[in-house]
Amino acid sequence: LQAKKRADYLPPAFTINDVKMDVQLHPTCTRVTSEYQVERMGNHGHALTLDGDNLTLREVCIDGQPYTDYEQTDSSLVICNVADDFSLKLVTEIDPEHNQALEGLYLSAGTYCTQCEAEGFRRITYYLDRPDVLARFEVTLHGDKQHYPTLLANGNPIARGDHDDGTHWVTWQDPHPKPAYLFALVAGDFDLLEDSYTTTSGKPVKLELYVDKGKRDQGVFALESLKRAMKWDEDTFGLEYDLDIYMIVAVDFFNMGAMENKGLNIFNSKFVLADQDSATDEDFFNVESVIAHEYFHNWTGNRVTCRDWFQLSLKEGLTVFRDQQFSADMTSPLSNRIKHVRVMREHQFAEDASAMSHPIRPEEVIEMNNFYTVTVYDKGAEVIRMFHTLLGPEKFREGMDEYFRRHDGQAVTCDDFVAAMQSVTDLNLGHFALWYSQSGTPVIEVTTSYDPQTRRMDITFSQHTAPTADQKDKASLFMPVAFDCIDSAGNHYTDDDGQVRDGMFILDTAAKTLHFSDVPEPLIPVVLGNFSAPAKVENSLSAEQLLAVFQYANDTFNRWDALQSLYDWCIHQYELENQAAVDATIWQGLEQVITRESHNHELLGECLVIPSFETLCQSRQLVEVAALNTARSQFCRDFAQRLHGPLETLFKTLETGPYQYTQTAINARRCRNVVLNHLACAGDADKLLNQQFEQADNMTDSLGALKAAQGHSPSVFESLMSRFEQRWNHDPLVLDKWFGLHATTERTDILSQLSLLQQHPRFAKGNPNRVRAVIGSFAFFNTAGFHAPDGSGYQFVTDYLLKLDAVNPQVAARIVTPLTQWHNFAPDYQLLMKAQLERIANHKGLSGDLYEKVSKSLA
Ligand code: B3K
Ligand code: ZN
């Protein structure tokens, strides 16, 4: 398998301007007739090479005449001796029912649907399946009227009718030229929610949301979210919707979250269906943010698309940034920022330190589906956020306007985006653009020196990016560093040379020093407010200083972060068996945090969360899993016991009353469930757990009780889990929470538990949501089970992946991720993990997806 390189990009030799498709739906033999207007690009004599995968070719015609001068390979159809302009007609047959990879056209529990990004259209018909070929599509679908009363494709319906044999047909026309990855079709029998939206310029848009029969009420929140997103994009970026109709279809079998097909989004039902009983606050949040994300793609992705797949972050980083800003405006900036920083620290930093390390614009790809990563998406969004920070909101908006002015209707590159931003600012973005090509996580080291005689203080920031698997040499990055400086009494200081402006300075060299004079005592540097750059900070502050940062820093994110660092330091003392270092002043300090902030449920709800095992791994090397996990648990227990009084008092003030979905109520529920977990950890909370489960009138609190019981009260956990199962047996999305809880429970017989879960009547190995809930949760989040010292966890996951790979390589390649991150673990673990990776590498018939990730991590 050969990697493609970014540097090898060539423009297409031909383009296709118009596509007419006729699709006769049939479970095992769907017949696709496509007619293309093809045009030669430039002066050359090459044949026309179309991409195809798993297709049965039945007919080739050129300009209406049967044509035989062509060759077929496994992955292409080469048509020789063609004119400069011609029409090409192809008839192919495909088998949706046996398409378990869920790429191309497939059946999701009886509903026909498609997934074409990145390279799935070639599984429907032969085509120039690359994002820089943009064509107008007209699509006619034929299907059984009784089973598939709804027939959908992109754009507007322009004609429909019945055939004599009980089938019917609908023709859809999409006026906007688009790359094939945005093509979609759906056929099924749904409940429909209808609404409408009028854009600022007065254009009416029909909104249609299609869900499984009987689920109409669970679609209401998604539809409301869509309208909020449409309004927000008009208000914030002046961007209006551009078709007469916007459709969203929820399906059960889906490899990812959702897909932004032009005018016809297809969603994993997990990100559409939500109501008070069955969805947590987090589920509601996710529905709103994914609905918005896909909607925002209409401009950032669809109107302006990517020239080639190496540019994926052009649309994904930008759209994630846009959805994050939207969510912050709809809910709360602080908890949003913390949520996204957790993703960076838990997952992106880990990816950047692994063999899969790649820049947000990758250089080499074997299987494109492997690059829909936290790096391209989330680090990509952090890079866009830095533009926003550096330029300020007004200039950023100007830059966006210019980007659309220049590139509407085009397929462009990340460089084009940077150039549009550059055109509105005097700041030289040349150096900044290194973020697109350099991988790895930069570390900012903060060192201080204080001279009591002269009362002068220097604070030096040095940056360093360690070599990564894909790239040895690293240069200094251009980083906006939000900065504040306090003394132990909370006074704020400014630097002598005024390098810090509006609370920020630029670190663009290997090191920079800030000077302070007339300083009464050593100052405390407060660095990277609001996570102003995707970097790690090494700032050796003492426990007292961290508590002072919490008390006095201007930036709330810094305050939260100070406690995270404090917990990390404490857990490290436990690892060193030096518990005594976590002394009375620290416990008192933490007690004051709780009592002083007891009214601030949002801040406290986040501050009382102890860093996850995954986050802790990122500030350690060659992690001794069992030792770290034990140290973390011991610290959690001491935390819960030492602070039991104030936690209990706080808990009592957090009576949340009847369910409401408002930010205040969400914050209170969040805080309450975080505290409940500590109370359960302290022991003796069985009554409380039962009570909360009993009385909960919403899923957040039911699940909060289950999670708190999970690690701390096995018998309560068992009994509540079986009641939960009985109540929710009919609802697969809710049952996924139950599967996930079982799979993440740390117990010695976890592997037999996992086998039982797989035999559960509701488990379906062809459904990615089920597989992720059981196997994915175990591999990603069951620390003790996955990293069992005898290697049994690794082996279990590997056994499963080898079977899954034959069916759904995309999902298999995602779940293998934790194994590929072996570098960060102690040698004994490394050996066991690598042994399983070797097994995968030697497996016959391995997919390109798994091959790419596994071979890289063994190289
Ligand atoms: N663009 C899609 C992701 C497609 C993934 C293909 N393996 C969803 C999104 O980012 O909005
Ligand atoms: Zn996206």
UniProtKB/TrEMBL annotation:
<dbReference type="InterPro" id="IPR012779">
    <property type="entry name" value="Peptidase_M1_pepN"/>
</dbReference>
<comment type="similarity">
    <text>Belongs to the peptidase M1 family.</text>
</comment>
<dbReference type="GO" id="GO:0008237">
    <property type="term" value="F:metallopeptidase activity"/>
</dbReference>
<dbReference type="InterPro" id="IPR014782">
    <property type="entry name" value="Peptidase_M1_dom"/>
</dbReference>
<comment type="function">
    <text>Aminopeptidase N is involved in the degradation of intracellular peptides generated by protein breakdown during normal growth as well as in response to nutrient starvation.</text>
</comment>
<dbReference type="GO" id="GO:0008270">
    <property type="term" value="F:zinc ion binding"/>
</dbReference>
<keyword id="KW-0862">Zinc</keyword>
<dbReference type="InterPro" id="IPR037144">
    <property type="entry name" value="Peptidase_M1_pepN_C_sf"/>
</dbReference>
<dbReference type="InterPro" id="IPR045357">
    <property type="entry name" value="Aminopeptidase_N-like_N"/>
</dbReference>
<dbReference type="InterPro" id="IPR001930">
    <property type="entry name" value="Peptidase_M1"/>
</dbReference>
<dbReference type="Pfam" id="PF11940">
    <property type="entry name" value="DUF3458"/>
</dbReference>
<dbReference type="Pfam" id="PF01433">
    <property type="entry name" value="Peptidase_M1"/>
</dbReference>
<dbReference type="InterPro" id="IPR035414">
    <property type="entry name" value="Peptidase_M1_pepN_Ig-like"/>
</dbReference>
<keyword id="KW-0482">Metalloprotease</keyword>
<dbReference type="InterPro" id="IPR027268">
    <property type="entry name" value="Peptidase_M4/M1_CTD_sf"/>
</dbReference>
<keyword id="KW-0378">Hydrolase</keyword>
<feature type="domain" description="Aminopeptidase N-like N-terminal">
    <location>
        <begin position="21"/>
        <end position="182"/>
    </location>
</feature>
<feature type="domain" description="Peptidase M1 alanyl aminopeptidase C-terminal">
    <location>
        <begin position="544"/>
        <end position="859"/>
    </location>
</feature>
<dbReference type="Pfam" id="PF17432">
    <property type="entry name" value="DUF3458_C"/>
</dbReference>
<feature type="domain" description="Peptidase M1 alanyl aminopeptidase Ig-like fold">
    <location>
        <begin position="440"/>
        <end position="539"/>
    </location>
</feature>
<dbReference type="GO" id="GO:0006508">
    <property type="term" value="P:proteolysis"/>
</dbReference>
<dbReference type="InterPro" id="IPR042097">
    <property type="entry name" value="Aminopeptidase_N-like_N_sf"/>
</dbReference>
<keyword id="KW-0645">Protease</keyword>
<dbReference type="GO" id="GO:0016285">
    <property type="term" value="F:alanyl aminopeptidase activity"/>
</dbReference>
<protein>
    <recommendedName>
        <fullName>Aminopeptidase N</fullName>
        <ecNumber>3.4.11.2</ecNumber>
    </recommendedName>
</protein>
<dbReference type="Pfam" id="PF17900">
    <property type="entry name" value="Peptidase_M1_N"/>
</dbReference>
<dbReference type="InterPro" id="IPR038438">
    <property type="entry name" value="PepN_Ig-like_sf"/>
</dbReference>
<dbReference type="InterPro" id="IPR024601">
    <property type="entry name" value="Peptidase_M1_pepN_C"/>
</dbReference>
<keyword id="KW-0479">Metal-binding</keyword>
<keyword id="KW-0031">Aminopeptidase</keyword>
<feature type="domain" description="Peptidase M1 membrane alanine aminopeptidase">
    <location>
        <begin position="221"/>
        <end position="432"/>
    </location>
</feature>
